[in-house]
Amino acid sequence: MDDRVFSIPGLVDLQVNGYGGVDFSDPGLTGEMFTAAARRILDCGATAFLPTVVTVPEEIYRRILPLIADVMDTPEFRGRIPGIHIEGPFIARAACGAHNASWIHSPDPDLLDRFVEWSRGRIRMVTVAPEVESADRLIRRAVEHGITVSIGHSMAAAFDVECAVEAGARAMTHLGNGIPGIIPRHDNPIWSGLSDDRLTVMMITDGHHLPLPVIKTFVRAKGAARCVVTSDASPYAGLEPGEYTYMGVRVVLEKNGLLHNPAQGNLAGSSSTMMECMNHLASLDLMSPDELVQVCYYNPLKLIGVDTSSVRSTRDVVYDMDERRFSFAG
Question: What pLDDT digit, counting tens, does each position of 213-234 carry?
Fold first, then answer.
């Protein structure tokens, strides 16, 4: 192999909502549907990933979480799906984004306990809005379960972020997204998250969610050690451009990959894979090759408490330093 092209351990994506028309939060999800989507994700964009279940009614969690756990237990996916990300329902209505506001639930440690039971202890991450009453109790309960808590879909002020970190929060879910377009100038979750050295920033670098100046600011503020790239891939990642229905509303997937809700004027998740997000970040020339590997592999695993030895890769990933591009070998 050319000395300007080298193998990397892999790509780990902590937030994947679905792929190829399969929605991991769909009440009609089956084991066969989840398996097919997981295979495609692992085949074209990631070495390991966290399937992400967004804000849905409690009975849907009761049905979906054990279904995903069953697939995770099969030999095919051991070491490739290290856990589940629960993005909601413990979020803020004022920052719900594409989530259904009517299904948002107040932070309830007992409900989290039920999630853990239904998933057979497979939850690795939960996204929480810390400004909502009782969020600190939920965060502490999550930490007791060994779950990484990330702040997201939140209008948290600096005080709220500080309280969340003191309770055990360790990250910010897709920082810069999942909030309204107009927020308080100074006391907002972006500045608070960037300034707290204990928090890791998760960012969607698909070329649509965050412009270059924002990504550059995140990298400069946190350094590679406190950055994690995620795709936030939607169920419509991997599909052709067109109109679709997502969470009951019309969304449009443009030819350039932008997935959005024209009526509400907001994004509806990403249409990109983890590899595509990493290739966009690499093209910006903000990080060294070693730092790129850090934010796509080592940092994600460290954040969710998974040892690299437990991750199983079936395809080699390489990085071409001249082209600034990741790809699967062969």
Answer: 999 999 999 999 999 999 999 9
**Can you count the helices (H) and strands (E) in the chain?**
10, 17
Q: Quick one: which of 137, 164, 136 has its CA closest to 150? A: 164
By the 10 Å C-beta count (0-12 exposed, 13-18 middle, 19+ buried), 318 is classed as middle
232 given a catalytic annotation: yes
- Residue 270: helix, strand or coil by DSSP? strand
Do 322 and 283 meet the contact criterion of CB atoms below 8 Å apart? no
DSSP-assigned beta bridge partners for residue 201: 172, 227
pLDDT digits (tens, 9 = 90+) for 261-307: 888 878 888 999 999 999 999 999 999 999 999 999 999 999 999 99
Q: What would the two tokens of residue 131 be?
A: 């400004």
Q: What are phi and psi of 23, to 5 degrees?
A: -105, 120
Catalytic residue among 232, 285, 307, 322: 232
Judge if pTM exceeds 0.85: yes
Task: Extract the tokens encoding 84.
Answer: 């589940």
| 250 phi/psi in degrees, rounded to 5 | -80, 130
* Domain 5-303, second-level architecture: Alpha-Beta Barrel (3.20)
Residue type at 284 in one-letter notation:
L
Q: For residues 47 and 13, is the Cβ–Cβ distance under 8 A?
A: no
Provide the 3-class DSSP secondary structure of residue 128: strand
- Strands (E) located in the chain: 5-8, 12-16, 18-19, 22-23, 48-53, 84-87, 123-128, 148-151, 171-172, 200-204, 227-230, 242-246, 249-253, 259-261, 266-267, 317-320, 325-328
Can you tell me whether residue 134 is helix, strand or coil? Answer: coil
CA-nearest of 114, 137, 37, 121 to 84 is 121
